[in-house]
Design goal:
With 126 residues, this protein is mainly alpha-helical. α2 crosses α5 and α4 packs across α5.
């Protein structure tokens, strides 16, 4: 007498699943396309914030003029430095100079962050 308590096991389909066998249509790709588009639109919002970088890193020395760091907004102290341009100032921060360590002591800063902070500090001179 056969036991019918357990259903008979079905044998698996011998053909493996092939994701490329299904035609790809826009409705299939729509979520991916839309999420990529949203990421592109949101990218400018993720741009470096010069004031935030200044407040979080640069102000430690540049607010009080520690070790002769030019203070924010001090035109006379910044005058000899601004002639070289933004790229040169960014390079100085990346490499470090005098008492200022490379990347102002914050190894997590990206070059874009540093550039934004430099531009913020230069804007304070106007």
């Amino acid at each position: 007498m056969a036991c019918d308590l357990h259903p008979r096991r079905q044998t698996p389909d011998p053909t493996p699943f092939n994701p490329w066998s299904t035609p790809v249509t826009f409705p299939t790709l729509r979520p991916l396309v839309l999420s990529f588009g949203i990421a592109l639109v949101a990218a400018p919002a993720l741009a470096a914030d010069g004031k935030a970088v200044y407040d979080g890193t640069c102000s430690v020395c540049h607010a009080a003029g520690v070790a002769n760091a030019p203070k924010l907004g001090d035109k006379a102290a910044w005058a000899p430095r601004t002639g070289a341009g933004v790229a040169a100032l960014v390079g100085t921060v990346v490499k470090g100079k005098g008492a200022m360590p490379p990347k102002a002591g914050n190894g997590n800063l990206k070059d874009d962050d540093i550039k934004a902070a430099v531009e913020y500090m230069l804007a304070a001179l106007k």
